[in-house]
Structure formats: structure tokens, C-alpha cells
Amino acid sequence: MIKLFNKIRHHLLTENKFSKYLVYAIGEIILVVIGILIALQVNNWNNERKEQLDATELSKSLIAELEGIKWYAGQRLNIMENQRKLIQYVINTKEIKKDSVLSITDSLGFPIEPLNFIFTFKVHYNPRDDVYRSALNDGTLSIIKPKWVVNDLNVAYSMSTKRLSDHAMTENEIIALINEHVSNEYQDLFSLNQIKDEIGSWDDEVTNTILQKISTDGKLKYLLSSRLQVLQFKWGDLKYVVLRRIEKALELLKENAQ
Fold this sequence. Notes:
Oligomer: single chain
Low-confidence stretches: none
Mean pLDDT: 80
Helix content: over 70%
Number of helices: 10
Number of strands: 0
Number of domains: 1
Radius of gyration: 34 Å
Strand content: under 5%
Shape: rod-shaped
Distance between the termini: 44 Å
């Protein structure tokens, strides 16, 4: 093609047809410009196509991560719900039965010392967010369109950690007070050091004695009531705020990935 253009140009110059050559030269420039514009457009299409594919893959990875976080949040909710039930039972029952306590802790699906679950066990919420964090740090999160999907995604991830951490300080303070009280008032019972299994459970006699003592321990019941209130806030925030944000972000991402 280039040889043909050169031949035409040479022919026009040798015949001294300058006006025709000028028209030809302008036409050749127009063709070159059109070719460049077409090449740029094709390049833009390719870039847009690649970005769309990258956005789809990122969306799928975020969907998988959020599904994992949703499952994790459900597990945390289940543990908090059982802890709430147990503390409610302990502070509202005059004659605490060990079997009733064990029926609640056994439903967790993992072994735990009942007294520890009542006094000091704290439900931590630390979901894995590697995909989101990496995309946020390297700027690739911006390839997901439309922009408001990213905004909802940011809210879901930031809320999933911040919302519950707001209660952490209060909960830690109450647990510290419970530990101090139990150490002072129950030291003679725990000093027997009668551990019966690998998870650190106290033997039946010690456990039953402490459970019965809780029934008449007004200060401990007050501290446990305060702890129950914090648990209720945590549970409500996780179920009705955090989890719903996660579900909304999942719905939007699934629509965007189709």
C-alpha cells in the first residue's frame, strides 16, 4: 500500500500536476489521521474491554470474600446469642442448674469452659478483608462501576470493623471489673485448682458451688447485667447494621458481575 502511494505521488510530480498532487497530499493526510483515530479507538475499546474483564474478576473475588465474611458474621452472631442466653439465665434464675448451663454451651459446636463463657469470654470480630484491602491500596477498586457500588462496598467493609469496635472499650472495662470481683470473692474456690479436662473446666463440685454463689451475689449480677447490655448492643449492630450492609454490597456486586 505504501509503495502504491509513493508511485502515485512520484507520477504526479513528474508530470508537474501540482494541484492534483496537493489534493492527493491532503487526502493522504486525511487517511493517515483517520487511521490514527481508528487505531486510538480500537486501543480504547481494548482497554475498556480489559478493564471490564478486570472489574468482573475483582467483583467475583470480592463476592467470594464477602460471602466468607457473611458466614463468619453468622458464626459470631450465634456465639453472642448463646452467651446472651447464658448470662440472662444466670442473672434471672434463683437456683442455677449446671445441666441448663451446659445445654447452652454445648450448642456452640466447640468446647468451652462454662464459667469462662459467663465471666470473661469475649466474642472478637476480625473478618479477613485481604482482597478489598489490596484493591483499595493499589487503586484497582476504582475500576468497578458504577461509582456508587464502590461507595456501598467501602461502607460495608469499614462498618464491619468500626461498628463493633466502638463497644470494645466498654466491654473490656466491665470484664476487668468482673475479673477483679471474682478474684476477690471466689479466690478460695478457684485456689483448689481442680481442673478436670484439657479446656480448663473446673470439676463439678467447684462449678456447682460457684454457680450457686452467683445466685446470691448482687454485685456480680449487676456486673453481668451491664455486660449483657453491651452484648445486646453488639449483637444488634452485627445483625441489623453490619450484616445488612454486607448483604447489600453482595447483591450489588452480583448484579455488576453479570
